[in-house]
Amino acid sequence: MENWFKDWFGSEEYLNVYKHRNDEDATKLLELILKQTNPTKQNHILDAACGAGRHSIYLASKGFKVVGFDLSKTLLLKAKEDAKNRLVENNFVCADLREIYFRKKFDLIINLFTSFGYFKNDKENFKFINTSFSLLNENGFYVLDYLNKNFLLANLTGESEKEINGRTIIEKRKVINNRIIKEIQIKKGPEEQHFVESVRLYSKAEIESEFKRIGFTPVFVFGDYDGTNYDEQNSTRLILFFKK
Ligand SMILES: C[S@@+](CC[C@H](N)C(=O)[O-])C[C@H]1O[C@@H](n2cnc3c(N)ncnc32)[C@H](O)[C@@H]1O
């Protein structure tokens, strides 16, 4: 259970369950990020927990210098194939958020679509934020796209079912010890697979306080990919921009 993220994101099924998290969804968020941070083509961008590379590949296709890293070899393979097919530079690395280090520095670090809060304690969850502070150039940005705790708690759907690519996907959700636990059951013909997600629920205040302690300054906050103002109760997302 502690290492749930290795099994789940290492499986071929993650991309089926989150099929709606596609290139269009990625482009929308990146347009908001590019508008707010305004990087030049000489700037270096790090996509932390890049998954199958949908954000990295868009940025590379626009001429930015991007490195993406992730723990899942399955998703990185997809990222590399996709980059090759789209004729964009392929800079994907396999590494753990808790252990990664680079010699080079970056001007923008992005951590998108709830790729935060997976580990067993705050020390591990914020380890990469500490690392990022030293990986960023002065005035560099860190962008965190994370769930909005209050909205999630008020709108939790206990159980839902969907059909995708010939699979029945049943998702059961509950909150235990300040974590959102999702059990995912995937049925395909006679085959059945089970996975778990377990994400620590942090409030905006808790995240900001830890980033500030590390040395970051909060600069902008949005509540969805359209760039709507953040509202603690009603926003679907918590999108935080910090500056070094
Ligand atoms: C919800 S997905 C988001 C992927 C990508 N950012 C996107 O939006 O498509 C979370 C990602 O975090 C990665 N991940 C989980 N634990 C990790 C770790 N310890 N180190 C690096 N990446 C990790 C997973 O493999 C997965 O690709």
The domain count comes to 2
Widest sheet, order of strands: 3-2-1-4-5-11-10
Which parts are unreliable, with pLDDT below 50 for 5 consecutive residues or more?
none
CATH class descriptor name of the largest domain: Alpha Beta
SS element count, helices? 9
- N-C termini distance: 35 Å
Could you name the CATH homologous superfamily of the largest domain? Vaccinia Virus protein VP39
- Fraction of residues in helix: 25-40%
Which word captures the global form? globular
Strand content bin: 25-35%
Q: Biggest β-sheet: count, sense, barrel?
A: 7 strands, mixed
Query: Rg, please?
Result: 18 Å
CATH topology (fold) name of the largest domain: Rossmann fold
In CATH terms, what is the architecture of the largest domain? Answer: 3-Layer(aba) Sandwich
Please provide a written account of the structure.
- This protein is of the alpha/beta class.
- It folds into two domains: 4-148 and 203-243, 3-Layer(aba) Sandwich (Rossmann fold), CATH 3.40.50; 152-197, no CATH class.
- Helices cover 32% and strands 33% of the residues.
- It contains nine helices and eleven strands.
- It has a seven-stranded mixed sheet with strand order 3-2-1-4-5-11-10, with helices on both faces. A four-stranded antiparallel sheet has the order 6-7-8-9.
- Strand 7 and strand 8 form a beta hairpin.
- The chain is globular.
- The chain starts with a helix and ends with a strand.
- The model has no long low-confidence stretch (mean pLDDT 96).
- It binds S-adenosylmethionine.
